[in-house]
């Protein structure tokens, strides 16, 4: 193999090593970006589930309050209900897996029964039957609340498990990317070192060739 061919081969190998390192880095960053998006989405889903859980507890509390203050807290109750409906509609759009949709169905079904009985209770309150209202709120309405709250708790647990799983996947991907990057960097460093050694050997070989080709010094007259 000629000196030129050896040098070209060594350079090509070194460049391939550097390209490998760059490729691994780009692949790792792309994979981490995807995993990070998954973590963000899972976190948002978990936050939404927790918001629904809070909403249910909130409007149930305000319903109980207006049953005991002769309807004074009902406007706050209605605002709380409106907030829950808004969050539920968002959850319907964002949480689309069959398991999530089933839990949202359970929550909405319990909420529908809750509001249907609330209409009856408020009408009784307007007619001065406050004791009947209290019986409704502390009896069948509590059952509806517990059903909605149980569905929200299950949804929050599901989203929490999903968030933990995606967080672990992100951590694993980051570890794998770091290991591959270190390995490819070592390989690239070895190949560059081989290039330098090859260049040094070729330079010495060239020097010897030039020395052998030089004419001997003429003897003095």
Explain this structure.
The chain is an all-alpha fold and 221 residues long. The protein is 90% helix and 0% strand. The protein has five helices and no strands. The chain has helices spanning 3-68, 74-94, 98-126, 130-138, 140-213. The mean pLDDT is 82.
In short, what is this structure?
By secondary structure, this protein is mainly α.
**Strand residue percentage:** under 5%
Radius of gyration: 37 Å
Biggest sheet features: none
What overall form do the CA principal axes indicate? rod-shaped
Number of strands: 0
Indicate the structural class: mainly alpha
N-end to C-end Cα span: 43 Å
List the helices and strands in order. HHHHH
Low-confidence stretches: none
Give the rounded overall mean pLDDT. Answer: 82
Number of continuous helical runs:
5
Helix content: over 70%
Keywords for this structure?
mainly alpha, 5 helices, 90% helix, rod-shaped
């Amino acid at each position: 193999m000629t000196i030129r061919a050896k040098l070209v081969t060594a350079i090509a190998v070194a460049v391939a090593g550097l390209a490998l390192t760059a490729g691994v880095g780009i692949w790792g960053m792309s994979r981490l970006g995807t995993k990070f998006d998954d973590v963000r989405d899972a976190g948002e889903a978990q936050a939404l589930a927790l918001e629904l859980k809070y909403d249910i507890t909130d409007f149930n509390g305000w319903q109980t309050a207006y049953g005991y203050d002769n309807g004074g807290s009902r406007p706050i109750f209605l605002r709380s209900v409106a907030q829950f409906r808004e969050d539920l509609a968002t959850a319907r759009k964002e949480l689309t897996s069959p398991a999530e949709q089933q839990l949202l169905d359970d929550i909405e079904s319990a909420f529908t029964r809750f509001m249907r009985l609330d209409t009856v209770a408020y009408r009784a309150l307007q007619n001065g039957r406050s004791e009947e209202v209290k019986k409704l709120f502390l009896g069948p309405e509590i059952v509806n609340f517990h059903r909605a709250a149980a569905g929200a708790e299950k949804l929050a647990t599901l989203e929490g498990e999903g968030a933990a799983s995606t967080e672990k996947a992100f951590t694993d991907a980051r570890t794998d990317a770091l290991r591959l990057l270190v390995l490819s960097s070592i390989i690239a460093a070895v190949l560059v070192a081989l290039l330098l050694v090859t260049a040094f050997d070729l330079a010495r070989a060239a020097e010897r060739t030039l020395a052998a080709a030089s004419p001997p010094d003429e003897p003095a007259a």
